[in-house]
Design goal:
This protein is mostly beta strands. It has 2 helices and 23 strands. It is elongated. The chain starts with 14 loop residues before the first helix and ends with a strand.
Length: 370
């Protein structure tokens, strides 16, 4: 069953369940009340392999800011126009503080307010306001080019959130439109609009010889995309319909000249990366071939070695390895059959696709979770 790694909130009561929040702009009730923000809801991440790994993250686990657009019934011009809201940790464990420059106050003569938000607040979002904010919603657009070298290469452990300081691309979040009661603290429900790919390697049980990977790569993936929220509503069952993929495909490549030791019973993440949402086509190929010139669909390349002796090198005895290099259509090893309508692997918004490779003396076994 396909599972999203970030699900939308089911109820407003879940807002306060995420973290405690320190509310800013605390002023006397008799004075005009400033608009303030409370802990955004990010959702739960699920991993199909391990139900105990469900977790709810604070906003600061993803970003340190979000941008806000806001409208009210008594004005045509926005009251917030991409204003950054900075997020810092509070003094109490699990708490966060939300502050912005230039306080904006509630207009009690207004009949409604409507707010929109996106993260990070980096100035690269384009927001199109609704023609009539009383009857419709605005929408976000954004272009992105992912850096294929930012894959958290070979660091091992599964990352619960992908942040630039972990050596990965920056994640993107948008919030559902929020229409609070006037005077209430504003809370957003964010969803992820990128997808995620993990490639994990381990050694087959009982294999005495040392195993090393020299290359694990996913090639022919689209790295450039344009997001347009107006194309469709967020699909809780998963979709990449709001994305258009353009440009020349690229590759996520994890390599090391001396190889990475693969241990029995230890799952090592060699690739953890964000992916532009897209469909990956099923394509039958020669899995053991070295000629990849005819491969148009994304594919996995694995070069690994199995210890077969020693040699003298620079006055030292070093291990030698018999090397193997194999290619696999990515959709095929994720279980796509190519039969009927089962023709592609989806990297949907908010989905986490994980591929585990268990390397043995004669073959590689695959386990895929979506």
């Amino acid at each position: 069953m396909k599972k999203s790694y970030l699900m939308m909130a089911a109820a407003a009561t879940m807002f306060v369940a995420c973290t405690q929040a320190d509310f800013v702009n605390d002023i006397p009730a008799s004075a005009p009340k400033a608009i303030d923000f409370k802990s955004p809801f990010i959702g739960k991440s699920t991993r199909a392999e391990n139900s105990s790994a469900n977790y709810t993250l604070k906003f600061s686990d993803h970003h340190n800011s979000f941008a806000v657009w806001g409208y009210k019934s008594t004005a045509i011009e926005p009251v917030f126009n991409g204003k950054p809201v900075n997020v810092t940790l509070g003094a109490d464990a699990g708490s966060e503080i939300y502050k912005y420059d230039g306080l904006v106050y509630w207009d009690e003569s207004a009949t409604f307010y409507q707010f929109y938000a996106a993260a990070p607040a980096d100035g690269n979002w384009t927001f199109t306001a609704p023609n009539d904010s009383a009857k419709g919603n605005g929408y976000f657009t954004r272009s992105i080019t992912l850096d294929s070298t930012k894959i958290n290469q070979g660091k091992g452990a599964h990352l619960t959130s992908l942040k630039p300081e972990e050596g990965v691309n920056q994640d993107l979040l948008i919030a559902a439109p929020c229409k609070p009661t006037i005077g209430e603290t504003v809370g957003f429900e964010f969803i992820h609009i990128l997808s995620r790919l993990n490639v994990v390697v381990s050694k087959k049980q009982g294999l005495a010889e040392e195993v090393r990977t020299f290359e694990v790569s996913v090639r022919n993936m689209n790295l450039y995309g344009e997001f347009d929220e107006s194309k469709a509503a967020a699909d809780p069952n998963g979709s990449y319909d709001r994305w258009t993929n353009l440009g020349t495909p690229g590759s996520y490549v994890a390599t090391r000249d001396t190889g990475v030791v693969v241990q029995e019973g230890v799952e090592r993440h060699v690739i953890q990366t964000l992916v532009v949402p897209q469909g990956v086509a099923y394509q039958t190929i020669n899995m053991n071939g070295t000629d990849v010139s005819n491969l148009s669909a994304p594919y996995l390349c694995v070069e690994y070695g199995i210890e077969n002796g020693t040699k003298l090198e620079g006055g030292k005895t070093v291990k030698t390895f018999e090397k193997f290099k194999k290619y696999y259509n990515l959709a095929q090893i994720f279980g796509v059959t190519g039969v009927g309508e089962d023709t592609e692997l989806a990297f949907n918004e908010g989905w986490e696709n994980t591929l585990t490779l268990t390397i043995g003396p004669k073959s590689i076994d695959f386990k895929a979770t979506c």
